[in-house]
């Protein structure tokens, strides 16, 4: 079963615009990670944010984490056609199994 | 520095057959996890291997089994295949205990189709 929900399920924007994806989860976490998947192939790790962090940046990516609301957002600025992919959030629980629990993903399409 | 290597890339099997998928972790990694991703869904955790032992297991039946070798590579075996086992199988490697800091490295997956 999936840990949480991602919103929206699909997003289509013009190249150069910003894209925002949201993720909600259910349990207390050690960290939350975002991954990108192109055309149903392997997952690429984008960024990891720990439960005691509120915001993190990596290049054109900005991730926020609100543990009180059990939610996170991923912002991609100045989008490019190459950003077209599915984006997944995944959590690692605070206690118990050190495994990734994924959401259902957001399908992002960047139109040229 | 080689990443995670999975083989084969595609596989077609008949219901009731058995299949073995293989994974070589990224250099320097000692832990291998397997995930199943059905079409349009997020990946689901199958199990994790470290020091040649299954350390954690997700909600998958005993038809799913695995093995880790001394060189850290791993196999996923699925017996008595069902149509519902059709999915992308992903291998992820990490350093034991390092996942909480650095995340996982995924392979490109094996696309299994059961007919």
Tell me about this structure.
The complex is a heterodimer of chains A (about 110) and B (about 120). Chain A is mainly β and about 110 residues long. Chain A has strands at about 5, 10-15, 20-25, 30-35, 45-50, 55-60, 60-65, 70-75, 85-95, 100, 105-110. Chain A has a single domain (about 5-110), classed as Immunoglobulins (Immunoglobulin-like, Sandwich). In chain A, the strands form two sheets. In chain A, strands 2, 4, 5, 9, 10 and 11 form a six-stranded mixed β-sheet that branches. In chain A, strands 1-3-8-7-6 form a five-stranded antiparallel β-sheet, with no helix packed on it. Helix content of chain B is about 5%, strand content about 50%. Chain B has about 120 residues and is mainly beta. In chain B, the strands form two sheets. In chain B, strands 2, 4, 5, 6, 9, 10 and 11 form a seven-stranded mixed β-sheet that branches. In chain B, strands 1-3-8-7 form a four-stranded antiparallel β-sheet, with no helix packed on it. Chain B has one helix at about 100; strands spanning about 5, 10-15, 20-25, 30-35, 45-50, 55, 65-70, 75-80, 85-95, 105, 110-115. Classes of the chains: A mainly beta (about 110), B mainly beta (about 120). Chains A and B meet through strand 4, strand 5, strand 9 and strand 10 of A and strand 4, strand 5, strand 9, helix 1 and strand 10 of B.
